[in-house]
Amino acid sequence: MSGQKLVGSERQEALSQIPQWKEAEGRDAIKRTFQFNDFKEAWAWMNKVADVADKDDHHPEWFNVYNKVDVLLATHTCNGVSDKDIKLAKTMDSFFQN
Amino acid sequence: MSGQKLVGSERQEALSQIPQWKEAEGRDAIKRTFQFNDFKEAWAWMNKVADVADKDDHHPEWFNVYNKVDVLLATHTCNGVSDKDIKLAKTMDSFFQN
């Protein structure tokens, strides 16, 4: 993981691998909303993600209410989206089975 | 827990028990920000809260980034603040040792 800001074709290629993620408005970041059947499912998913995030020392910005989790990913050291965000997005997608 | 909207002196008395919580702007809800030393501490606290919230079937709206957790509590069935929110706020406070 370089943690360097993704730009140009490299960025497009990376984003094409996570088609459910969208560019955030007003900020160089990516976002996705995950919806679960209930809080228990949402929380189980968040726990799995939290474990990976902390091991990789790369943390999401996320908002939860009941069965819904809004996630925003960015890399503050490069002030944009890096390969660390792409990796975490893929991890989140892979843990999401709905 | 009645889940009924707290108003008037009953509300003031209840809020006086949780002085670190403030009224939210533009919405009948209460809010507090919790700051921890790192993500691991924040997450451990959130896990303890999540367990109680799910047992009581009364869930917070919360936003986490790294060591910070912004919480908003309201009771949607009464469209305001009820004793359920006061109870959850006290639980959160009691788990917060910083």
From TrEMBL, chains A, B:
<comment type="similarity">
    <text>Belongs to the pterin-4-alpha-carbinolamine dehydratase family.</text>
</comment>
<protein>
    <recommendedName>
        <fullName>4a-hydroxytetrahydrobiopterin dehydratase</fullName>
        <ecNumber>4.2.1.96</ecNumber>
    </recommendedName>
</protein>
<dbReference type="GO" id="GO:0006729">
    <property type="term" value="P:tetrahydrobiopterin biosynthetic process"/>
</dbReference>
<keyword id="KW-0456">Lyase</keyword>
<dbReference type="InterPro" id="IPR036428">
    <property type="entry name" value="PCD_sf"/>
</dbReference>
<feature type="region of interest" description="Disordered">
    <location>
        <begin position="1"/>
        <end position="20"/>
    </location>
</feature>
<dbReference type="Pfam" id="PF01329">
    <property type="entry name" value="Pterin_4a"/>
</dbReference>
<dbReference type="InterPro" id="IPR001533">
    <property type="entry name" value="Pterin_deHydtase"/>
</dbReference>
<dbReference type="GO" id="GO:0008124">
    <property type="term" value="F:4-alpha-hydroxytetrahydrobiopterin dehydratase activity"/>
</dbReference>
